[in-house]
Task: inverse folding
């Protein structure tokens, strides 16, 4: 049975994941979607969606007054913001404060990550998740935390520094058989759209996993599909990786690069894995497997149209 949550405010709806969340929330019957849009940013491109029943509200996390007016008449808040600590931590704490004062009955902070309660998972970057999560619990605002491992889109992107398909190189630590959790962004978004109205999800930290894979599995799948041979480069042992992650604390690194990098490498180092997926509680959703994802991404490009560097010239 769903709650009587109807009006959902999405913050960060103009972002990469936020865009998927907007689509998933819009597809959920009974939800009226409000999206906070920063004046003068790429959010202006959203103006056209108003005709689909979306209420666009001008505002920013930096301005409490704009948050207070965005929260008027809202039952639930879903955040998909990203950025430096002023946004990710201070901004979300302002949003939480406004949500508390407006009696919001569900708050989902911008997690969609590894298990950041594993204190060693990703150091400073994950510490920001922990700070917000602690504040959410203390605030007394009914909430749900959503964890999904690494996004497939991110894990397979050059930002994660594991797969560089354009150059035909795959980097790994240990044996390449260390498992990691991955979920397609669209699936994570559909799960959020389910849990935001699910009364049983209140007060829970829910883990969803699209698939569990390894570096070797992904490389083998890609090779089988494209006929392109990847050069494997072992960067060291899992212990070496752990030491590197401690040294390379992500302060100062770009948020996108840190997030992508840590979402996979922390898991390869055995940190932040999701142990109790709640997939079975949401049987309507059949997540994409890693194979589905790789096939959908590379099936369309005929091998003849792909540029393959000769192995000797690769770094
Ligand atoms: N598990 C994974 O592998 C993984 C990978 C990537 C991301 N994530 C997580 O997914 C979430 C979203 O990340 P993303 O990559 O989709 O982010 P993104 O594309 O960078 O989008 C960030 C969003 O935050 C908004 N924003 C930034 N500053 C704001 C402010 N002061 N006030 C209001 N809105 C503001 C942006 O609005 P404008 O359009 O106005 O700039 C944009 O909508 C984050 O929690 C991130 O850690 C997880």
Result:
């Amino acid at each position: 049975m769903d709650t009587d949550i109807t009006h959902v405010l999405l913050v960060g709806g103009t972002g990469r994941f936020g865009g998927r969340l907007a689509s998933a929330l819009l597809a959920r019957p009974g939800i009226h979607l409000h999206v906070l849009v920063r004046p003068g940013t790429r959010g202006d491109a959203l103006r056209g969606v108003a005709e689909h029943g979306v209420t666009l509200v001008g505002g920013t996390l930096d301005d409490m007054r704009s948050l207070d007016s965005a929260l008027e008449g809202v039952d639930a808040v879903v955040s998909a913001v990203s950025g430096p600590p002023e946004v990710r931590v201070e901004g979300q704490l302002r949003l939480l404060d406004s949500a508390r004062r407006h009696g919001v009955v569900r708050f989902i902070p911008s997690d969609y990550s590894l298990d950041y309660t594993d204190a060693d998972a990703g150091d400073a970057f994950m510490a920001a998740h922990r700070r917000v999560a602690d504040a959410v619990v203390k605030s007394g605002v009914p909430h749900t935390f959503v964890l999904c491992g690494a996004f497939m889109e991110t894990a397979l992107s050059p930002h994660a520094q594991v797969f560089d398909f354009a150059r035909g190189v795959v980097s790994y630590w240990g044996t390449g058989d260390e498992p990691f959790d991955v979920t397609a962004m669209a699936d994570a978004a559909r799960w959020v759209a389910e849990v935001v109205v699910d009364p049983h999800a209140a007060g829970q930290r829910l883990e969803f996993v699209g698939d569990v894979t390894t570096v070797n599995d992904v490389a083998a799948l890609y090779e089988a599909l494209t006929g392109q041979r990847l050069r494997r480069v072992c960067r060291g042992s899992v212990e070496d990786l752990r030491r590197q992650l401690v040294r390379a604390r992500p302060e100062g690194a770009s948020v996108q690069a840190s997030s992508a990098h840590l979402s996979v490498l922390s898991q390869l180092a055995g940190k932040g894995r999701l142990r109790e997926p709640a997939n079975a509680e949401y049987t309507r959703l059949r997540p994409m497997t890693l194979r589905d994802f790789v096939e959908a991404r590379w099936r369309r490009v005929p091998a003849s149209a792909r540029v393959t560097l000769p192995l000797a010239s690769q770094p």
